[in-house]
Amino acid sequence: MNRIAIKMLLGDRAKYLSLVFGLAFAVLLITQQGSIFLGLMLRATGILQNIAQPDLWIADPHSEYIGDIRPLDDHDLYRVRSVPGIAWASPLFATRARVDLPDGRHKTAQLLGIDRSTLIGQPPLMLEGRLEDLRQPDAVIIEESSRSKLGGVGVGDVLKLNDQRAVIVGICRAKMGFESNATMYTTYNNALQFTPVGRERMSFILAKVKEGVPIQRVQDTINGMTDLAAFTHDGMSDRTINFILKETGIGINFGLTVALGFVVGLVISAATFYQFTLENLRHFAVLKAIGATTATLIRMVILQALVVGLIGYGIGVGIAGAFSLLGRKPGAELAVYFPWELMVGALASMILTVSAGSVLSLRRVITLEPAVVFK
Questions:
Q1: pTM of the predicted model, to two decimals?
Q2: pLDDT tens by residue, 184-237
Q3: pLDDT band at 368, cuts 50/70/90?
Q4: DSSP tag of 71
Q5: CB atoms within 10 A of CB 153
Q6: Distance CA 109, CA 100 (A)
Q7: How far apart are CA 364 and CA 281, in angstroms?
Q8: What are the boundaries of each domain within the chain?
Q9: Dihedral pair phi/psi, residue 142, rounded to 5°
Q10: How far apart are CA 81 and CA 207, in angstroms?
Q11: How far apart are CA 171 and CA 154, in angstroms?
Q12: Which of 115, 195, 264, 320 could pair with 90 as two cysteines, CB 3.0-4.6 Å apart?
């Protein structure tokens, strides 16, 4: 009976292809938009993507996300270092800076100042130059995708950063932020020279907890200081993503697109599959007349629905996966994150879609009278 069901399905090539490509388009829409949404949420975490050394990020307690920076005082660094259980604590300076290009244009860059002695907060991967050269006066390291944004500069070139001289001593690779600005690294002291600020200068304090000491206990101690708040890496990421979802329309916009993909798949599969079943009622009637049970016919309809659903799912996910590879290239502007959970979710949506689409068809098959074959 399974072979007969497949032959019935493939007998009408036009409707079979309509079902497959309709479901493939729906799955593509769900997975592609879902992966772009997740990619944007990941990029929204900004510098958290590139700095994994610290256990805790200490910031102003009223900071709502990673880009909401209220500078800390230098004394706060020594206060954190004095907390029991802290192995080390380093300052991090993060701000936007203006880069003047030789042709008269200017670009906005993300400037990160890391501790000169420990280099905590360093870029994940160096491509050209040495990280230690960052300790030189006026030295900066730029992210590889920033070269084209800054006029194709390279190691040894000189930039004008906030009207200050900046010498490129290296090229690194790092993940881009939400705004896709050029990214530049320098030491904390150099950053203060490039961007003069007042008494409160530190954007964050990066802290490592001693081995064997519970992170939560140290975090609670720092949070007890009324003017400081400590967040774990995941805690700051969640705080940032929640802010983006609540305070912007990104979640609603992408949610509507994913829902549209589900509705499109449901309507196409329901309408086309129902029409396919109607045109094959005479075949089901013959099978019922020669002794096939209702349960057997139901299994045949479900098998047909699953076959077109899985084929459509494979095509849709395959195209979305190939599309997501474009976003994995270093410096790609396309924000894509395609975890396996998204594939499982798309599979569940597809099964739900074809199941709902085959309900009407099952009803006609269940109520079918064998005498139809003689009419």
A1: 0.80
A2: 999 998 998 888 776 667 899 999 999 999 999 999 999 987 689 999 999 999
A3: low
A4: P
A5: 20
A6: 10
A7: 8
A8: 2-44+249-374, 61-227
A9: -110, 150
A10: 8
A11: 8
A12: 115
User: Binning pLDDT at 50, 70 and 90, where does residue 23 land?
Assistant: confident
C-alpha span between 151 and 153 (Å, rounded)? 6
Strand extents, DSSP E, the chain = 56-59, 72-73, 86-100, 106-114, 125-129, 139-143, 158-161, 164-173, 182-187, 200-202, 204-209, 229-232
Tokens of 296: 């057997």
pLDDT above 60 (res 252): yes
For residue 212 the two structure tokens come to 């064997």
User: Per residue in 116-151, pLDDT tens?
Assistant: 999 999 999 999 999 999 999 899 999 998 888 888
C-beta atoms surrounding 228 within 10 Å: 18
Q: What is d(CA 54, CA 184) in angstroms, rounded to the nearest whole number?
A: 20
The residue type found at 75 is H
**Opening angle at CA 351, ends 345 and 355, nearest 5:** 145
Provide the residue type at 292 as one letter. Answer: A
Tokens 């890391």 sit on residue: 114
Q: Which two tokens stand for residue 81?
A: 């270092």
Please answer whether residues 182 and 99 qualify as being in contact, where contact means their C-beta atoms are separated by less than 8 angstroms. yes
The count of other CB atoms within 10 Å of the CB of residue 42 is 18
How confident is the model over 69-97, as pLDDT tens digits? 888 988 899 999 999 999 999 999 998 88
Burial of 214 (0-12, 13-18, 19+ CB in 10 A): exposed
